[in-house]
């Protein structure tokens, strides 16, 4: 006795019809009433609703459908009504109403029930005309869509061989036929164990050819349409012909996109094998996919972007994407109404954003404000923020965030986190953006800095303090805002605190080169001198913390009273010891030399440096260092020492002479070795200018005397202060008194860029 069970309910893909899937179970009962033999069979029933129009009462029609179709239970009335509403609003296909042979393959597959026992009959149809081939392949497709039939079809070599032959020979003659046969092989490609049979018949290579050919056909169609648009008048028969051509174009486009979709799905399945993927790459799969990005069909775009995303994890494919207009074509999809398409596009852009050139292209095509706008989208916020983070790594683009509303949004997110742990993506991008001066100013607007500082100190959040540290490095009005927090920061500089936390707090303090700040009072009140001195010992802490201590000493030494206090505490010998230990690290050397420069700049500490330490001797050793920044600070420091101490002045000049003389001798020897150039110079009077060869630097007289006027541009005559004439003495800020050397903070050669999210 047969028993029918209703299954899924769906809309017909091309007609105004509902498709009801059902299952028939037939069983034979034995004498005792038990089941002796049973068989299950799936079927489909098509319910056409040709009367459906924009004015139709969908509710009444749904009730009528449920009443007349016994397969649909009354409980599914809301679903029927929803599907009818969808059909009512769906754009009609340009091919509706044509003959059966020109319909999409779904129509043929659904109108006749296929049986696995009749496969040989369907194969015979493949040897006839195109309409018969379409019918035969459509019936085989109906079988292939049921995974239970794939194993039996796999063993029917005649069927698969015939299908492959027809596809090779006739795919250009009929889009419907090509779509159906590729769909059959797609069913096999959905299971890894059947990939072998698809490869055996070279269906993947054939699909590549199909896609390439169809894309070229599309270009031809568009060009023809463009020419007709250009020649057609506003009205008349030519305009009617043009309208007809447009309708025909859309009909062809709809069929072609079905073919492209099934072909690319099959290729995507086969690309699970990296060797097959490599073959596709060699046949320019990336170029073909990127060209399809021009289309408007959202389902096709979802497939293409998914495929590109899979390919983008390999460097070679990413490089191929960089050579074509991938980013430009993806940019138009951001934002879009299709949620899946938007999310996939963003994830593909994230993969591409690891490439600096592609990041630049993203900014160039205007993605920055679009991505910023997505920060308010809960579903896409995280991936958008990760792309923005990658863009923020590049100093070229940090300043461009000012022209979006990104920073206010980020600050609002930080505020909303309250006492919860901040997301890694959020704080990462904030840290990077804070390295730009204008961004830092925006972050400090209103109560921005107050909120950041309060939260960082309360939570002892190292990453948030790293962001504050970046803000504090910028000269201008931003720096003066930190005066209110000097005490809070200084209170955190304690041995019992975590080193990472102390590093960020100390780094922030060290950035505060504010003339009005009384550093002597700060050091005394918070008893920082013993801590600083203790941390100067090599190995007492991580190198980053020790370096920050040196920078801090250089900052506070701008204050003459503070410099004197540090000199008396014995910090200079500790710095020399550290210099010996870290002489291979240019960053350490440069910052320690800068401390010496600050010490000799003040009269109160100059004598201590010159007479009580060996600092000048170390500076002489470093005056010809290969690092330009070290040479610059050394020269400035030694020039001051040379003016105020004659003995050291002679030693410095002698060393400069020795260095220049050695260079001269090496140059002469190299010239003499070259017999083709017997003369070093032309015979002119320059050879008589011995002062160029024997003076310390080509400017100072050769007799070793140094006029005090020579140093007038280097520093004020009193050695400490510059008289402004209004009764207020300030530190000299001329070009001869350089600021603190730029630190390598954030760019240490032994560290990777901050990148914490998984």
TrEMBL record:
Top-rank taxon: Eukaryota
Q: Note one Pfam family from the annotation.
A: KAP
What stretch or stretches form a coiled coil here? none
Q: Name one GO molecular function term.
A: kinesin binding
Cite a single GO BP annotation: cilium organization
Q: Name one GO cellular component term.
A: kinesin II complex
InterPro entries in the record, alphabetically?
Answer: ARM-like, ARM-type_fold, Armadillo, KAP3
Region annotated Disordered, chain positions: 715-758
Protein name (Swiss-Prot/TrEMBL): Kinesin-associated protein 3b
Which species is this UniProt entry from?
A: Sander lucioperca (Pike-perch)
């Amino acid at each position: 006795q047969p028993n029918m069970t209703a299954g899924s309910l769906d809309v017909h893909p091309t007609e105004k019809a509902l498709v009801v899937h059902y299952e028939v179970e037939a069983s034979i009962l034995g004498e005792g009433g038990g089941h002796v033999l049973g068989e299950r069979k799936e079927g489909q029933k098509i319910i056409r609703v040709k009367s459906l129009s924009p004015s139709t009462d969908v509710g009444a029609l749904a009730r009528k459908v449920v009443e007349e179709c016994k397969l649909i239970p009354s409980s599914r009335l809301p679903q029927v009504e929803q599907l009818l509403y969808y059909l009512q609003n769906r754009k009609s296909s340009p091919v509706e109403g044509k003959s059966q042979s020109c319909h999409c393959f779904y129509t043929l597959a659904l109108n006749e029930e296929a049986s696995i026992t009749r496969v040989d009959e369907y194969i015979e149809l493949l040897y006839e005309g195109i309409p018969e081939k379409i019918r035969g392949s459509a019936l085989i497709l109906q079988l292939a869509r049921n995974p239970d039939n794939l194993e039996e079809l796999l063993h029917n070599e005649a069927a698969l061989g015939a299908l492959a032959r027809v596809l090779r020979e006739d795919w250009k003659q009929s889009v419907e036929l090509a779509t159906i046969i590729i769909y059959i092989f797609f069913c096999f490609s959905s299971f890894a164990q059947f990939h072998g049979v698809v490869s055996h018949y070279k269906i993947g290579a054939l699909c590549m050819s199909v896609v390439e050919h169809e894309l070229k056909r599309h270009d031809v169609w568009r060009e023809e349409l463009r020419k007709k648009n250009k020649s057609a008048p506003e009205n008349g028969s030519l305009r009617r012909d043009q309208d007809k051509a447009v309708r025909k174009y859309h009909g062809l486009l709809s069929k072609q996109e079905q073919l492209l979709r099934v072909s690319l799905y099959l290729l995507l399945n086969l690309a699970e094998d990296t060797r097959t993927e490599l073959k596709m790459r060699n046949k320019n799969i990336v170029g073909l996919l990127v060209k399809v990005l021009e289309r408007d069909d959202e389902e096709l775009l979802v497939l293409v972007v998914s495929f590109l995303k899979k390919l983008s994890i390999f460097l070679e494919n990413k490089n191929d994407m960089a050579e074509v207009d991938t980013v430009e074509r993806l940019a138009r999809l951001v934002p879009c109404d299709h949620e899946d398409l938007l999310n996939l596009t963003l994830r593909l852009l994230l993969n591409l954003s690891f490439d600096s050139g592609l990041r630049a292209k993203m900014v160039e095509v205007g993605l920055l404000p679009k991505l910023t706008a997505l920060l308010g989208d809960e579903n896409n916020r995280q991936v958008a923020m990760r792309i923005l983070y990658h863009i923020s790594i590049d100093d070229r683009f940090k300043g461009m965030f000012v022209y979006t509303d990104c920073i206010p949004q980020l600050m609002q997110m930080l505020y909303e986190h309250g006492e919860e742990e901040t997301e890694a993506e959020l704080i990462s991008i904030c840290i990077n953006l804070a390295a730009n001066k204008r961004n830092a100013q925006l972050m400090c607007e209103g109560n921005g800095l107050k909120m950041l500082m309060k939260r960082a100190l309360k939570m002892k959040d190292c990453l948030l303090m790293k962001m504050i540290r970046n803000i504090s490095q910028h000269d201008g009005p931003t720096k003066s805002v930190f005066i209110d927090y000097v005490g809070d920061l200084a209170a955190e500089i304690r041995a019992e605190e975590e080193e990472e936390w102390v590093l960020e707090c100390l780094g922030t303090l060290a950035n505060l080169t504010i003339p009005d700040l009384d550093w002597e009072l700060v050091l005394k009140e918070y008893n920082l001198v013993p801590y600083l001195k203790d941390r100067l010992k090599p190995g007492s802490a991580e190198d980053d913390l020790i370096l920050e201590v040196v920078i801090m000493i250089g900052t506070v030494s701008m204050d003459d009273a503070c410099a004197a206090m540090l000199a008396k505490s014995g910090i200079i010998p500790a710095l020399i010891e550290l210099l010996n230990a870290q002489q291979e690290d240019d960053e350490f050397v440069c910052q320690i030399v800068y401390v010496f420069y600050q010490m000799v700049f003040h009269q109160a500490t100059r004598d201590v440096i010159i007479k009580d330490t060996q600092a000048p001797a170390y500076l002489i050793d470093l005056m010809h260092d290969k690092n330009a920044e070290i040479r610059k600070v050394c020269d400035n420091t030694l020039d001051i020492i040379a003016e105020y101490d004659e003995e050291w002045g002679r030693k410095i000049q002698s060393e400069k002479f020795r260095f220049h003389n050695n260079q001269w001798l090496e140059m002469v020897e190299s010239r003499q070795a070259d017999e083709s150039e017997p003369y070093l110079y032309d015979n002119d009077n320059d050879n008589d200018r011995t002062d160029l060869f024997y003076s310390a630097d080509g400017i100072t007289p050769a007799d070793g005397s140094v006029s005090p006027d020579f140093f007038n541009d280097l520093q004020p005559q009193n050695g400490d202060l510059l008289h402004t004439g209004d009764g207020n003495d300030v530190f000299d800020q001329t070009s001869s008194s350089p600021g603190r050397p730029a630190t390598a903070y954030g760019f240490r050669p032994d560290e990777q860029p901050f990148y914490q999210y998984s």
